[in-house]
Amino acid sequence: MASQPGTREALRPLRALRYDTDRVSLDDVVVPPYDVIPPADRERYAATSEYSAVHLVLPESPSRAGRLLYEWRQDGVLRQDERPAVWWHVQDYVGPDGAEGSRSGFLSAVHLSDYAEGRVRPHEQTHAAAKAGRLELMRATSTNLSPVFGLYDDPSSAPRDALLAHASGEPAMEVCDGDGTTHRFWPVTDAGAIAAVQEAMAEQSILIADGHHRYETALAYRDERRVRDGDPAGDEPYDFILMHLVNFEGGGLEIYPTHRVVMGRREVTDEVLHAFDVSELEGPPGQVEEALRLVPADTVAFAVWRGADRRALLCTLRDRAAVGMAMMGTPAPLRSIDSAVLEAVVLAPLLGLLDPAQFQTTESIRYVRDLGAATALVDQGEASAAFLLRPPAVEQVRAVAAAGAVMPQKSTYFFPKLFSGFLFNPLDA
């Protein structure tokens, strides 16, 4: 790997590449993150506008994305801001549970840092295969096309205070997306405010909430470019990555669950659930989910949906020694995470997964966010059981990260999503 650059700015303001709204409507071109766009939706977004960001984030090929990006810049469809800015971003939304919420944060270019340095840390495991295609796309475009979602911990809310004084009036960009989330953006170009944000973030560690593959791809791209460019002494644009940062404190952060659905025909036996107190529940999935929510937060628990013609099971941990045996050497905060205990104590023996890494490749489990979709797979006979989960608390995520551990994949569902197409970050000078 190439050596690290000589200077260490924690973050920089963006000279973002943005759509010229005199040429296109943002409503027609912004799209959800590439990894949540199914093929049918991809075609719909592509048909909505020839300039849709989907042509870049989910292109016909990486080389075509590179050509389109170049052409759109040449034609003035995309223009680069003259003044560097830190962007204040507010999302007003209705969550999957029907509750209204608002989340706020800021976007800037954050200095890339290897995980081993501890400044930027992952919070869950990733798939190596998913990164190969994104690296080809980054090589072709030399641009961050979508932001990484990062979390930081600042009880003083210094970045928020510095930016809010300059983020007022009509937003520079505003869109209501297909999920009903309203996105509003204000650019802050004031040098004093930007300096205050840089100072507040200088010693902060950042936890990746979403976008691990994008971040790890950017690290690989940085290393390639540094080798190719003779390892420049100072920072280059590719030493940074577009990131949306939300404070653990006061940012409106909410986490929702992702359920585990066991495909095929596998009976969930008493033996598999030996470490848990098990009670039967009647009623539809919504009632089962509500019963699960009533379990005290400090008790590991999950529910098992076995089909509309059978009673569901509510499982609460009884035998902590069994967890200690199955998760030997695992930091204590991780042993309190429902999904981690479920994987180690129940799903691993049920599916014969002897190595935790096998959870990243097995086709026996589907990760489903929507409760109705998860239980429907069982009711329709495609799956044997849906293991219904509660979301981890923000404090639990923070504790796991502080212990230097990572959550199982798909343990957290951060909503609302960060759409692509508002801000692009070019990686060439």
Identify the notable features of this structure and list them briefly:
disordered N terminus, 429 residues, six-stranded antiparallel β-sheet, nine-stranded mixed β-sheet, single chain, alpha+beta
Structural write-up:
This protein has 429 residues and is α+β, with helices and mostly antiparallel strands. The protein folds into 2 domains: 11-254 and 415-426, no CATH class; 258-390, no CATH class. It contains 13 helices and 21 strands. It has helices at 26-29, 39-48, 54-57, 62-75, 129-141, 158-164, 191-201, 212-228, 285-293, 320-326, 338-351, 371-379, 394-402; strands at 11-12, 17-19, 78-80, 86-94, 100-111, 120-121, 143-144, 148-152, 173-176, 182-188, 206-210, 240-247, 255-256, 259-263, 276-281, 301-305, 312-317, 365-368, 383-388, 413-414, 425-426. The strands form 5 sheets. Strands 1, 4, 5, 6, 8, 9, 10, 11 and 12 form a 9-stranded mixed sheet that branches. Strands 15-17-16-19-14-18 form a 6-stranded antiparallel sheet. Helix 4 (62-75) packs parallel to helix 5 and helix 6 packs antiparallel against helix 7 (191-201). It starts with 10 loop residues before the first strand and ends with a strand. The relative contact order is 0.18. Mean pLDDT is 93; it is low at 1-7.
